[in-house]
Amino acid sequence: MNKGFLLTxxxxxxxxxxxxxxxxxxxxxxxxxxxxxxDFSQITSFNLFGGGGAFNVNFGRYWGVxxxxxxxxxxxSLTTKLHELGYTGNVNGNVFTYMFGPQIKKxxxxxxxxxxxxxxxxxxxxxxxxxxxxxxxTNASSNNNAFAFATGGGLDLKLTxxxxxxxxxxxxxxxxxxxxxxGYTGSQNNFRYFAGINFTFGGAPPIPPTASxxxxxxxxxxxxxxxxxxxxxxxxPRHTVTYSWSSTGGSASGTGTTANLNTANLSPGxxxxxxxxxDEKQRTNNTAxxxxxxTVKAPRPPIASCSADPTTVQPGASAIVTVNAxxxxxxxxxxxxxxxxGSVTGTGSTGTLNTAGAAAGSPITVTxxxxxxxxxxxxxxxxxxxxxxxxxxxxxxxVGTCNFxxxxxxxxxxxxxxxxxxxxxxxxxxEPNGRVVVVGYAEEEEVAKVGDIDGQRSVNVKYYxxxxxxxxxxxxxxxxxxxxxxxxxxxxxxxVPEGATFNGEGTQTVDESATKGQSRKAPxxxxxxxxxxxxxxx
Length: 538
Prior knowledge:
Elements: H1 2-13, E1 25-36, E2 46-58, E3 63-74, H2 76-84, E4 94-105, E5 111-124, H3 127-135, E6 144-158, E7 163-176, E8 178-179, E9 184-185, E10 188-201, E11 210-216, E12 219-220, E13 226-233, E14 241-247, E15 251-253, E16 258-262, E17 269-279, E18 287-296, E19 303-309, E20 312-313, E21 318-326, E22 333-339, E23 343-345, E24 350-354, E25 363-372, E26 377-386, E27 397-403, H4 415-430, E28 435-440, H5 444-450, H6 453-466, E29 479-483, E30 490-496, E31 508-509, H7 526-533
Parallel strand pairs: 12-18, 20-26, 28-29
Antiparallel strand pairs: 1-2, 1-10, 2-3, 3-4, 4-5, 5-6, 6-7, 7-10, 8-9, 11-13, 13-16, 14-17, 15-16, 17-18, 19-21, 21-24, 22-25, 23-24, 25-26, 27-30, 28-30, 29-31
């Protein structure tokens, strides 16, 4: 039987790892006494005192195999009772029990009850003394072995991870002692009590509780609400968990699994909310904390663009200015308007420009100012042109025409033209506020052969008046050169008095940077010589 027990203990030790939250080994030691009922009519009961210990191997969350070893000796009350029965010999008796069996136990919490069923053997030299005292004999064998069985349970009070107090363990203890050489065998129904200390070894340490936190939303503007949430794991489900909250910015309020954050007046940046869960009933591993972050974004101003319809109006007319504005942060917007001229009204996304009183012929700039509810603003502008009133054209005076009939010098100012221009120069000198417009003309075939011949004729006339033989040295800014539609080989000279306007309809300005003025003595061009040598067909 002992070999079988050892094999069982070794086998069950291999399964001890399955009880990851319980100790692998338990060793209780302490004091014990047995109230014995010896099954003799003269002696009904007596107490034995002693002690011992046990060795328990756990192989699961609740189950284990226990080896129990106890030893006892008789008390003075038994000696007195035997002497009263007339027994005159020495009373020297001991009892030892060796039992093995399963134990079932709760391994969590402070209070840990357990139960057991044990089977084994008992050894004693006391029963021969009891038999002799009861039967008046003196020859009974002093050493006896017997079957032993115990069942019962007790309670451990957990003090630390490795030490528990065992205030009570009570068992029904059955023994079947006989007396060698007498033929006597009896069953003893006994009561056993044990108290002591239980030492525990091995096993995984308790799993500490954990917590995880989250916040919603994770990005906000200052003043927006934030909600934080905590969830916990591995706390004792039968205990009440309390919660507390803190934050690196703003203020957190709440005593449950959620908290509300006040973010008013927070500067842009990242902030952390911390939640702590506490089990007040648990002495160790009773807290868990977690954190979550949220970001306060920098405020962004509104975005705005403006447009006007129409963009050109008559003096005194109105135009509508439309503002297309938005807030990237989703804030409410207000609008106001101003203008460089006229007046503008409107408080929404459209304004009306009234151009009454604005100077004709000048642009008006309308400015829209868009402001959100935090005071951040954006501006945009739109331009409206006010047309100038129709210009009254004073007819200029045509004061002469120059003909260009020389086939070799097709743009040369001849003597007839020179006389006309001398008169024009005198008038310009007499009327210092007047000016002259020269318009050159040419036939179509001339333009095809020579190029800008009409422009060259008007430029040569200007050259004569400003730098040529006339010696008049007229200010070039007072002479405008233009060219007209194809038709004749001429240049007309128009005198424009002060306050008058030349009607240039049908003419265009000559580019003087490309067409330079020539003196009367300039040689004929090769193209002009060729044209003169080959008269046109009749």
